[in-house]
Amino acid sequence: VVVETNGNSKTLQISSRITGYGSSVNGGEFLLLGLATCFCNDIYREAAKRNIVVSDVTVVCTGEFGAEGAPGTNFRYTATVVSEASEAEIDDLIKHTDRVAEIHNTLRKGLDVTLVQ
Predict the structure, then answer these.
(1) C or N terminus of the chain, fewer CB within 10 Å?
(2) pLDDT in tens, the chain (117 residues)
(3) 39 burial class (0-12, 13-18, 19+ CB within 10 angstroms)?
């Protein structure tokens, strides 16, 4: 897989399913990974603006996927931030980052997805 933003491309190795057809990681897993990655990156960005040094971030995202074609539901996540900042500063940083995380806000707003052929 090759992903690219602003001309900066990166290659990710993703194995195929045991059958050889399709990806070993499903789209729902990638969607949740996108949420986790966005929050993790944004926590460092927002911490730097506040002069807070973050030494570790753990994000766990969950969601439910039902029948084929049905949208996912019950998306939730937890975040743990390790820093020498006060507990109140860390809590405020987490809440602020949740409000400004772009992927989170995209999903919260809802969006059209259009197939272009």
Answers:
(1) C
(2) 899 999 999 999 999 999 989 999 999 999 999 999 999 999 999 999 999 999 999 999 999 999 999 999 999 999 999 999 999 999 999 999 999 999 999 999 999 999 999
(3) buried
Token pair, residue 99, equals 């409000």
pTM comes to: 0.89
Rounded distance, CA 99 to CA 47, Å?
A: 14
Phi and psi torsions of 38, nearest 5° = -60, -50
